[in-house]
Amino acid sequence: MKNKVVKMSIASAILCLAALSPVYASQFQPDTSGRIISEAKLLTTTWEESEDKEVVEMLYSSWYRGIDRLSNTKAATFSKDDFKLYFGFDIQRLYSHKLSNNEHQSFHMALKKAQESYQKGDKAYGILISSDERSAKIIWERNTGATHVGELVKYTDEKLGPLWKLMNEFDITE
Asked: Which superkingdom, per the lineage (predicted)?
């Protein structure tokens, strides 16, 4: 009986030490809250804001040239006033985060499908989202000077709700 009490006492002491060790150890951990906050602040900056001004201006110039080409080529079906231009790398932060999970995933899958047309030397892409949010156009300047356009459309699936797909792609030379 005495042997059993000793074993129970030792087991209790070990459990007590094991339970208190994280509390004791936490007193000696470095405070990382400041680092985490400063890293979070870095993530709130858009790619456009963090990029060199010359690069941003060059990309916008390229995109506006592409938008003008698109307006001249597809004047009957495209009006630049009906679309809002987004910096391609910031689309998650500025637009697609507000979509449902299924729509968000299909939007980025369609975008990725359009990006498969990238060629070596092509510039970064811009995204035009229609004011009714039913269509989008991914545009970028090719290394040849042509403008590449990928047309995304939103449709409704009975089970999954609104989804996006890549409908068409083409290059405009002038």
From this structure: Bacteria
